Amino acid sequence: MCIRDRFCRVLDSYLVCRLVDVLREVGVVSLLESGVSVSEVARRLGLDRDLLYRVVEALEVAGVFRWVGGRLVVRGVEPPSSGDLREFSPHFALAVDFLVRRLVDRLRSSEDRVSALLDRSFYLMVFNVLHACPAMFYTRESLLSYLGFKPRDGVAVVEFVGVPYGDATVAVLRMLRGAGVGRFRYVAVLPSEKLCGEWWGVVERWCGEFGVPESYLSSIEYEVCGFGELSDFVHARDWCGRFDCVVSSSFLHWLPHDVRLNFIGCVFKLLCSGGRWFNLCSLYSRGRVTVLELLLELFTEFCGCVSEYEFRGVGEVFRVERKVLCNLMSHSSLSFCAGKRGGGVGVSGEVLFLGKMYHYSFGTSV
């Protein structure tokens, strides 16, 4: 099993297991198993009824909760070993526990306490633990390689950074170093100076850990621009058609829906003829709420999953040459390589569902 699949499985199973465990602790699971309705459980335990319905729905989507004769039946999910958790990050389990317990605080309508805890510094602590770790960097490299990213001398890359994980930046720089690339242009576009500082701290630290040359780091350019102003920004910099690759990672679900469509147009303008857009791990809508969506809704920055409609919009502008759709218990994510070329396209990819890989290939455009 490749590192990408292992990381997804560990995060997925631990997240779902911890949520079920905490719901058992507060008495939700035992009442539902005895045939008490969701609405009545919320009343008896003093929980937010609407949110409890959504939590139960998310666990149904995960395939963990099902109903037999009006009673809840919980499907067992094997948690990852402590060794697996430590391999990805020494604080991996702690970060997930924080997220799950904050969701339960919200169920208990402890809004003041939740608001005090879920400030930006808390958010950064939790998600940098999950994303800024060696396993995630290897995962991003594996995904970029599968999607067709090929480092070469003289390549021009622009990355859009919505959150300061640094995983895509470090992965691309490692791939450039591994290919012996000496000349390249790398531009990072971020929405604020504050986020830029946070992102650079992660990139600098991990590039040092991995032995990425100082000359690579000093070659990185960065620009600050609100993502709602990208179109004017791109024209003002005379960047149209100047880049071989656009990279965005864990990005689209942090953009408001109206900004996403504008962003797709900006990516098209930035790419030269034959250029590629590599979009990694955007949360993707199944049409029903998932566990990870509920956890992310604790943060005001989260704007919502990418819909099928929005992805079709990508296919109208680009050739979607390869995509990876991961359908896990806790969430779905979408990655793809889209080329700026005309004509028909054959689409191939893989689906990861509950830890098993399914491959497909077909000849019509997405």
Walk me through this protein's architecture:
The chain is α/β, with parallel strands linked by helices and 366 residues long. The protein is 49% helix and 21% strand. It has helices at residues 3-25, 28-33, 38-45, 49-61, 82-88, 92-107, 111-117, 120-131, 134-147, 167-178, 193-210, 214-219, 230-236, 257-270, 291-296, 308-317, and strands at 65-68, 71-74, 155-160, 184-190, 220-224, 243-249, 271-283, 319-327, 332-339, 347-353, 356-362. The protein has a nine-stranded mixed sheet with strand order 5-4-3-6-7-9-8-10-11. The protein has a two-stranded antiparallel ribbon with strand order 1-2. Helix 1 (3-25) packs parallel to helix 6 (92-107), helix 6 packs across helix 8 and helix 9 (134-147) packs across helix 10.
Summarize the structure.
The protein has 366 residues and is of the alpha/beta class. It has helices at residues 3-25, 28-33, 38-45, 49-61, 82-88, 92-107, 111-117, 120-131, 134-147, 167-178, 193-210, 214-219, 230-236, 257-270, 291-296, 308-317; strands spanning 65-68, 71-74, 155-160, 184-190, 220-224, 243-249, 271-283, 319-327, 332-339, 347-353, 356-362.
